[in-house]
Amino acid sequence: MAPMNTSKPLSIMVSAGEASGDAHAAHALQALSLDFTAFGMGAGMLEQSGTELVVDCRDLAVIGIVDVLINYPRFLKRLRLLREHMRTRKPDLLLLVDYPDFNLKLAETAGELGIPVLFYVSPQVWAWRAGRVPRIGRLVSHMAVLFPFEVAIYETRCGYYANGG
Length: 165
Description:
Elements: E1 10-16, H1 19-31, E2 36-42, H2 44-48, E3 52-56, H3 64-70, H4 72-89, E4 93-97, H5 100-113, E5 117-120, H6 133-139, E6 142-145, H7 150-158, E7 162-164
Helix pairs in contact: 4-5, 6-7
């Protein structure tokens, strides 16, 4: 009789705040050849891939600064809920997908808890708000980028390798 596998599955907390991030995260998780469980924020594709949705991002869709300001209390409530789940469930990894302003706040909490952070789909720092790069470097353990030229940005400014996606 073969010995029983007693190792627990990898626990991954996911945060994807919009439809494209949901699709990217679902694809990334489906490509893993690991035993894992996932929970966090996303939409239909993540849910179909087996992720437990703590927050459904479909009710967070906003357009423009006015919508953001009007819905700011809802964003804060979702952020608090996700932080609470992170503290309680202590995942092995926090997987962030795009949605930088919200997700970097989750990365701060992960850092306090010693949880590694993988940011998939880099914020477009080459297009706007390049000043975020040092903060990203402090908060993110590893950056997985979509565009090959983004690797140099993170290697030069953060001192770590950003794996091309």
